[in-house]
Amino acid sequence: MSYKANVYNVMLASPSDVIEELKIAREVVLEWNNIHSISKKIVLLPIDWEYNSYSSFGDRPQEILNQQILKNADLLVGIFWTRIGTPTGKAISGTVEEIEEHIKSGKPTMLYFSNRQINPDKIDDEQYKAVINLKTEYQKKGLTYSFESSDHFRSQFQRQLPMLINNTDYFSGFEEYPLDSVTDVEPESKKIDLSPEAKLLLIEASMDRHGQIMKLHFTNGFAIRTNNKNLNKDNSPRLKAKWDSVFGELISNDLIKEVGYKGEIFELTAKGYGLADFLKT
């Protein structure tokens, strides 16, 4: 039986020493689909560099992987044991760079650290120390989990993945908008006076596969992102004030609604889709 569903990419990120756990994570994601996909109208698609990257040139290797895989990830699952990985020129390892970039995007991240035993002769002290330091750093920023064996990891991830999906506004099942909710918008839309920036944002968001807008704040600036594009040209306070005004326009006219936390993720309403379609004609 066919059915309509929203597809979310689950990126599996790790160094090379947790092959068994990566296999388990992939199995758990696919098992979630078997149990929940039809009722939730959600499909989780596991992705990683081994299965989802291809040969390309023109940038440093990790940035190529970021563009090919990471930018399309909706959830990142990071797994560590004794190795941190290879430096990228921007971060201590490719896995760490992926995690940092994903966290900056405001999208969900799950981190796991293995405590299972290993022959001391096989441990690279420098790599292992870097993992310990990383674990300590992330424990200050959020909630991580440790596991004692592969079976323990499976049981934890099997339990926590559904909890994340059920309790995170980012994940929503497919919902068809009634035709009258779109056509009824057109007459009213003619009365809404939007700025050029608001119209641009609305149109771009309507072409985003999730109909979502990310309003991200960093130490050195901000980013307005939708449809795989950054819309702000610079990080000046003047431009930030302008974009704050744009969001105010769209929210006050019931064209977008906040669906994330910290005011970082917004989603088009049925009225917003209808107005975007009208503006594109």
Spatially, the strands of the biggest sheet line up as 2-1-3-4-5
Shape, please?
globular
N-end to C-end Cα span: 36 Å
Report the count of strand segments.
10
Number of domains: 2
- Describe the main β-sheet briefly: 5 strands, parallel
Number of helices: 11
CATH topology name of the largest domain: Rossmann fold
What is the oligomer described by this structure?
single chain
Strand content: 15-25%
Fraction of residues in helix: 40-55%
CATH architecture of the largest domain: 3-Layer(aba) Sandwich
Low-confidence stretches: 179-185
- Whole-angstrom Rg: 21 Å
| Class inferred from helices and paired strands | alpha/beta
- Give the SSE order as H and E letters: EHEHHEHEHEHHHHEEEHEEH
For the residues shown, what is the average pLDDT? 88
CATH class identity of the largest domain? Alpha Beta
